[in-house]
Amino acid sequence: MPKETFFHLPEEKRNMIIQAAVNEFSKSGYDTASINRVCRAANIAKGSFYQYFTDKLDLYVYIMTTAIEEKIRFFSDSLAGLTDLTMPEQFRLLFKKGVEFAKNHPQYAALGEQFAKENNEAARKAVIKEGNKQSELLFSQMIQNAKAKGEIDSKVEPLALNLLLQSVNSTVLNYMQNRLGSSDYEYHEDDINSFVDSLLNIILNGIRNKGGVL
To answer: Which domains does the chain have, with CATH numbers?
Structure first.
């Protein structure tokens, strides 16, 4: 996270730094991204940068987390009026809403596309760790709604189910990138929905052969 000095800056200057960083990280992988270019674009001295952030990783995680937070807010607002949908229907809807979010926030979408290709494992893990914290809030909301409707057993441990849903989300994103060659839901909707349904079916109905013994 940024140092306190960053948050004491005037809003306009903070936004200039954020915008410069978003531009840089949406075009370059973590290793090739340049703090010098960020500083020049934001019109700040490199020495000043280190008064605001510990290092490049600190800035990278902050920028990616900001984008994730904005996306989670968008998803939460979208689902708020759709509590009549089942949890699987809501989960599938997230990927469709991701297309809408990308159209409304093209730079954040570019960040996501770049992150999907990120090779620096330390940077990936740091972002995923923070991203999971944000998605946990969204999935908790979905789980609470499902329990209130009697859709899932009230004895189900929320944290365990939350972690499973996070894993499903990560698995689907990996499937989109590695198997379909793209994280664009719009062009692979049927394939992605089928894969999501298969994963959710395992979680909701288990793997036991109903006619035999596991």
So the answer is: 57-205 (1.10.357.10)
